[in-house]
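Quick illustration, no need to memorize.
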Amino acid sequence: MTITIKTEHDIAKMRVACRLASEVLDYITPLVKPGITTGELDRLCHEYMINEQHTVPAPLNYQPPGYPPYPKATCISVNDVICHGIPGDKQLKNGDTLNIDITVIKEGYFGDTSRMFIVGEGSILAKRLVQVTYECMWLGIEQVQPGAHLGDIGHAIQRHAEAHGYSVVREYCGHGIGTVFHEDPQILHYGRPGTGVQIQPGMIFTVEPMINAGRRDIRTMPDQWTVKTRDRSLSAQWEHTVLVTQTGYEVLTVSAGTPAKPTIAVTA
């Protein structure tokens, strides 16, 4: 495992890229409403990145080994889609939940973030899942400090999710990020405290738990990208990119419209 410790130059560039990624979500938030298609949301985000920010959408044509090129500028995952939902002709309807995942490249540096949205008036179940998943992300982030371990992050997330009767997807995880989209270390969203790599100042990685209302089992669609819950239960995800500082953490994916840090009642 090769973990890149970022320089002050890297960190300054990452602050810019991450803020820009978050600003795409600010821009698209008022446009998430019944009747719009996920493809139209993707088109609007893509044009905003290219024309307004002069950034590059990292997912477009991204092709890990064994996968076809990803065909869109964003990932938009609706209802039982866990991650990597490909935007298309699906019209949003009242009560839908969706995750919009944005990664931009600015001057060679990647900024990566996602938010959940509820279209119109969501169900109590949907609102609860989205809120608890947000709390899970933040509980994970709050473990980040020099000398802690990556397992501390996963344990905090898993404990909170399971205390509310939810499950944690294990096939996908957070990741180091900088001038490479996905790099070491992997940030699991489950685990045991005190295990895994020790956290050091200068690391930058994402915390992006995927939490299912039902079981954690997944199924991958024929497009090889779209991942759904096997039991068709709702799934939710939030994502921030985090810098490890000398004394704790700094969330880099912040902008004017970033939702506030929650007040969390942790279940013992």
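The chain has a mean pLDDT of 97.
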